[in-house]
Predict the structure.
Amino acid sequence: MRALILLLLLTAGLARAQDPPRPDLFYLGVFADEARAVDCVTGPVGATFTQVGWAWAPPDRGLAYVTYRFEFPANLDLTRRPELHPLVAELIITPYGDGTSEWNFVFAECVGGWVRVFAQECTITSTAPGTVRTVAHHSMIRDCDWVLNDVEILGDLRVNEPGCGTVPATAASWGTVRSLYR
């Protein structure tokens, strides 16, 4: 049986659910919801949430290739393989010596506007604060003409930071929590 727990979230970014500040630019963001509004989650050890990677490409230019360079915090475990956009033909993940990971998404067709690139289930492994940071100078989008474009990052996803609101979420079972310490 899965019990409900309270995951805390910061919803100060509700305006993000609309078009980006400058629709002529390219944007990347990682959020804890489908509306691109939640950028802070807090929960006990073993609680799970889904981080969702979004990209914005001007519809007249589209996107064909997306690169995120992530710095993941120590208090987070990526639980399983990410769920990809249906048009992602390939995902290439490259870990780097500085502790970051580059996630490259190759699209089979050109898409534009808001694109839900991936969804990744995460498990909180510690109550210590941490941040999923997207490294701006290593993240980019190639448009449909295969031109490399710089991106604006829409913020970081914070984990176990103070000052969040509340939302019900599904907790992990006791067996799942115990398995984190084996």
User: Anything to note?
Assistant: The first strand starts at residue 4 and ends at 9. The CA atoms of residues 66 and 141 lie 5 Å apart.
